[in-house]
Amino acid sequence: QVHLVESGGGLVQPGGSLRLSCAASGSMFNTYLMAWYRQAPGRHREYVAYITRAGLTNYADSVKGRFTISIDNAKNTMYLQMDSLKPEDTAVYYCKLSQGSSDSWGQGTQVTVSQ
Fold this sequence. Notes:
By secondary structure, the chain is an all-beta fold. The chain contains no helices and eleven strands. It has strands at 2-7, 10-12, 18-26, 33-39, 46-52, 57-59, 67-72, 77-82, 91-99, 102-105, 109-113.
């Protein structure tokens, strides 16, 4: 069983920055993938970015060049540095850890981009 806790959300003006964290604890394999998803009001949850334990990354087109995903394996913590934020980035951001055939999700953290 893996437990994920997100933090770092908040209110920021357009053009601003935030850094989200996702701390993982519990039974973790040597190989896994961690990802960020987000869900805006009235919309389906959508993929944002992923990173493997080895550091391989991938981004959705909507955030490419503005968001940076990273991982600290010693701390079992994943980060999402979000720059040049836009109002359309407003959503609840969730982290996910995938290992073997199982997925674990965090509880989410709210990001609001507004004047």
